[in-house]
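Hi everyone, sorry if this is the wrong subforum. Our group has a chain we'd like a structural model of before ordering constructs, and none of us has done structure prediction before. Sequence below.
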Amino acid sequence: MSEIIFKQFEQVRGWTIEVAKSVPEDIVHTRPKGFRNNILWQVGHILSSTEYFLFDLPYKLNHLPVDYLELFGTGTTPDNWNGREPIITQLITDLEKQLDYIKQISNTQLNETLTEPKHGFQTVEDCAGFSVLHEALHIGKIEEMKRIITFIE
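Answer:
Right subforum, don't worry. Here is the predicted structure as tokens:
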């Protein structure tokens, strides 16, 4: 099963990077009507959530800048950024680096039980499976937002 998870991560992260690179920089801060966040937030949220589920929750590790969770965590919004947010090219670099960290997770680590079950997950592999699904969902949001923004302009 773990080989499937790693293959899915490589595939979905490749799509995320491709989609993020395809977004014109001048629209990453635009929030389409009816959306709570913008494209930059979506990309940062993918990073922060993956970091949480694969590294922070099971191992208390964090490879990202400490303020990413404040900026991109669940329930956050760009309304509170105050110019502290990274640029899209930095987030893309962080996506690439994070994939390298993900690839270093061993099959043994994937099978490890969480110290305390959380969010309905028992193992690191449970977290990884959710992270793949979660990332794919947010890729769709980015593409949706990009279409809306570019169609209106």
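For your construct planning: The chain has one domain: 2-152. Strands lie at 113-118, 121-123.
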